[in-house]
Amino acid sequence: MYLMGVVLFPALHAENQIDTLLTEYSRKNDLSQKTIDQNKGHLVLFTRDKLERMHAKTLKDVMKMAPFVYYHENRYALPDPLTSGAFEPYRSNFVRLFIDGVEITQGWLGSGIVLYGDMNIDFADHIEFYYMAPSLESSVEPAFLTIFVYSKDVERDSGTQVDVSAGSRGYHAESVNHSGSIEGVSYMLNLSHTREKREKIANGTASPLCRDFDRTQLFGYVKNESQTFHLQLMQKNMDALSGFSLDATPQNAGVDFQNVHMDYQAYLTERLRVQFAYDTLYTDIAMSDDKPLLFVGPLFGNSFYAKARNTTYSAEMTYRTQWKDHRVAAGVKARMKHLDYLKANGVGSIPLDFDEENILSVFVQDQYHLSDHELINVGLEYSAISRNSDALKTDDLFQMRLGYLWSSENWHYKTYLYRAMFALDPFSTAMNLTSFLNLGKGSANSVQTTWGVTQEVGYEGERYRADLMLFLLKDEEGLLQNGGDGNTKYVTTVLRYAYDFDRLNSMDLQLYYAHYKDIFTLDKLEDYSGYLTFTNTYGKMAFYNGIVWHLNSIDHKNYFDWTSSITWNINEDLSVTLKGENILDKAKKTNVFRIDPATGMMVAPLQISPIDRRVVVELEYLF
Amino acid sequence: MPNKPAYRLYVDDPVYKNILKKEEKVVFVDRFENADFILFTDESLLERYREYKQAHPEYSTILFATRYRLLKNCKDAVGALYWRKGRPQLLFLKPRLKHHNIVLPTMFKKFEIETL
C-alpha cells in the first residue's frame, strides 16, 4: 500500500518509473505475505501472480513443477508423488499438506495428499513448498516435504468469481468463489465441481483402464483478527485404474470418498495459540477381477466390496515469545486417528490388529539473531506414536534441526543440519501385521531416520533472481525400499532463475539433478528434470508457455510436458482462455507393475502418464 | 513563506492512513467535505459520499479508489490502484481527469484509458 503515496503524490517520486515500481511492489508484496517465512527452510514459492499466469486450476498443475517429488499417481489413480508403481498401499505419507496453516490429513491413510493432491485451487492465493522439516511450529507429524496452500485474502479478492471450463473427452469444471468482510469478520466460500474425463489406458484386454472422476468440493472460512474457522467438504467418486487387480485387468475398480474437515484456531493471548482440527473420511471400495485380488487374500474370493470410515482429531497449543534477540516457540501437539469401521459385503467387520493410533509431540525452537543479517535456528521435537496393539511398541521419533541464515540487500545464504524420523501410515502398519503383504523390512515398528545437510545461496537483482540449493541426504532403515536395504545416500541440487523483462513479461527456469546411491535394487540412479516458462502480455492478450522436462538413468528417455495458454481479457471482469496441456503427449510416465496371478511372474509394466493430453476452454467472470 | 500543506486528504481506513502519514506533503482531514482528495477503500464511504453529493450538488473533489468495483460504481472517481489476480493495477480515466483539469505527468500516460 505504500505505493498509494507514490501514485497520489508523484512529484515526490518523479525519478521513479511507475511500471518498475508496480513490478517491484508486486514482488515485494508476494514475498512479504505473513505466511512466508524464509527461516522455515528451503522454500519454493508459487505466487498468486504465477498461479494465475499458469492458469493452474488444481494442485496437480503446481506439483508437477515442484522439484524432488513432482506429481505422480499410483496404481489406484490416487495422487502419490513418491509411488514406485509397485503393490504398496500408499507411499507419500512423508509429503504433508496444509491449508491456511492447518494440516489436512486422511488419518488412517496418512497424508492428505491422497485425496487433496489434485484438488481444485481456485480458492488459493499462493502455495509454498518447504523441503525437509520446516518450522516445527506447524507439523504434528514429521515430513520430508510440506505443502502450504493459503487461501485468497479478502483485502485483495473481495467479490465473486465464477469460472467454467470445458475440454477434451467431455471434461468440464465449474467453480464459484465469494468473499467479503462484515464489521471486521472476513469470510470466503468456494464451491467447485469437476467432471474429469481422462485418457483410458490400454491393458491388452477389451476393457481399458479408467481413471475418470467426479468431484464436488467446498472450502470456506470465517475469521477475525484472533480466530479462524475452516470447513472443507469433498465428495469424489472415481475409477481406480488397476485397483486391486494384480495384472491390471480389473472387472471393476472404483472408490468413492466423502471427506469432512473442520478446524478452529484462536489466539488466547498475543503469545498463546490453540488449534483444533477434525477430519473424517468415508470410503466405499468396489474391486473385482476374474483372478485373486491384491491385499485381500483368498477369504474374499475375486471381489472386494467394502465400506470404511476413519476419523482424526488433532489439537495443538503453541507459545511464542521474544526475549532479547531470541524468538522462542514451544508447544505440544496431539493427534488421534481412529478407524471407525471397515466392513466388507458378505463378511462384515474385518478385524485388524489395531484400530487406533495416537501421536503426542512436544517441540521447542529458538531463532537467535546474531546480528541484523545473521540468524541461528535451533529446533528439537520428540514424538511418540502408540497404537492399541499388543504386537506394537511405541515408536519414538526424535527430530532436530540446526540452521544458520545470512542475508544482505541482494544476497542470501542458508544452511541446515537435519535429523528427521518417519513412520509408516497406520493403514500400511496394520497391513504389515494382518495381511500376507509384507511391507518395509517385515517389522511393523519400522522407523526411518533421515539425515540431511542442506545449503542454499541466492542473489536478487533489479530484474532477476537466482538461487542454488544443494542437499546431501542419507536414509537409514528406509521404509520404502522396494528390494533394497533402505540405506540410501543422495545428493540433490536445484538451480532456479527468474527474469522479468518488464511488469507483464517474464521467464522462469528451473534445473534439477539428483544422484542416488543404493536405492531400491539399484546401485546408482540419476534423475534430471527442469522447466522453462514464459509469460507474455500484449494488450488484452496474455500468453503462457511452459515445458517440464524429465530424464533418468533407468531408461534415458526424455519426457516433455508442454502447457500453453492464450487468454483474452475482454475487460476487467471477463476473460476467456484456451489452454493446452501435455500438448506433445510426451509427459513423464509412471510404471504400474503387474504380476500374472496364474504364474506369479512379473508382466511388462504399464507406463502411464498422470498428465492427460487435453485442450480446455475456460470462461472467467468477476463481479 | 507560510508552511501551507499541499494536500488535504480524507481516508478512513487506518491501514492506508498509517501508510500515507509518512508523506510529508499530506495532512489528514476529519471530514471528507474538507478534503482535496478522498481515498475510497470501501463501499460505506462511497455511500456517505453519494448522500452528501445528493444534498450538495455543487460539491466537487478528487476521488481515488483502491478497488476496481469502487471505480466502476463511482462516476466521480478519477482512477484506482487495485489488485487483480495477484497483480497491482493502476488506471486513470481520461474524461474524468479532464473534468477536474488534471494533467498527469508523462510517466502515467500509459495508465490512462478512455472508458472502463
Describe this entry's structure for a reader.
Chain A has 623 residues and is mostly beta strands. Chain A has helices at 3-8, 18-31, 48-54, 59-63, 113-116, 154-157, 426-434, and strands at residues 42-46, 95-99, 102-103, 124-131, 145-151, 159-167, 172-182, 185-196, 213-223, 227-239, 252-267, 272-288, 303-323, 326-344, 348-349, 356-369, 374-387, 395-407, 411-423, 447-460, 464-476, 489-502, 505-519, 522-538, 541-552, 559-569, 574-581, 590-596, 601-608, 614-622. In chain A, a hairpin with a 3-residue loop joins β14 (326-344) and β15 (348-349). Chain A starts with a helix and ends with a strand. Chain B has 116 residues and is of the alpha/beta class. Chain B has helices at 14-20, 43-55, 68-73, 94-99, and strands spanning 7-10, 26-28, 37-40, 62-65, 77-84, 87-93, 112-113. In chain B, strands 2-1-3-4-5-6-7 form a seven-stranded mixed sheet. Chain A binds chain B through residues 1-5, 7-12, 14, 17-19, 22, 25-26, 29-30, 47-49, 51-52, 125-126, 155-159, 571-572, and chain B through 7, 9, 15-16, 19-20, 22-23, 25-26, 37, 39, 64, 66-69, 72, 79, 81, 83-88, 90, 104-105, 107-108, 110-111, 116.
